[in-house]
Design a protein that fits this description.
The chain has about 120 residues and is mainly alpha-helical. The protein is built from five helices and two strands. It is about 55% helix and about 5% strand.
């Protein structure tokens, strides 16, 4: 479905392009002026770009921490036992959990719960 929409949008854009050479030249000049204006925005507004750069670096740090936290939570073995390690967002390297306060885990399933339920008749 995504590719059909993309194809339809690309077809619409191509259809809307001018066919007259004079209009094509005007369109090209306006597109080049818009691209130049966009590329030189930070030259004209240095303070805004400096603030935006600070916000962007802070967002990257927060995203890195958030993804590391989500990965840590997702890779835990069970609800009460932590995984063997977790990702330190500042160094991107796994660190080991402290083993001194690692809780012990005893499952609640019995051997009857773990036995598979077979379908069909037993072999003679």
């Amino acid at each position: 479905m995504f590719s059909i929409r993309t194809l339809a949008l690309a077809g619409l854009v191509v259809y809307m392009l001018p066919t007259d050479p004079a209009q094509q030249q005007l369109f090209m000049e306006k597109a080049m002026a818009a691209a130049h204006w966009t590329k030189t925005y930070c030259d004209r507004n240095a303070a805004t770009c400096e603030i935006a750069s600070g916000v962007w670096s802070e967002m990257k740090q927060k995203a890195s921490f958030g993804f590391a936290l989500a990965y840590d939570i997702a890779t835990r073995k069970s609800g009460s036992e932590p995984a063997d390690g977790f990702i330190d967002a500042s160094s991107d390297r796994p660190r080991a959990w402290p083993t001194s306060n690692k809780p012990s885990y005893s499952g609640t399933l019995t051997q009857d719960d773990l036995r598979p339920v077979w379908r069909g008749h037993p072999a003679p």
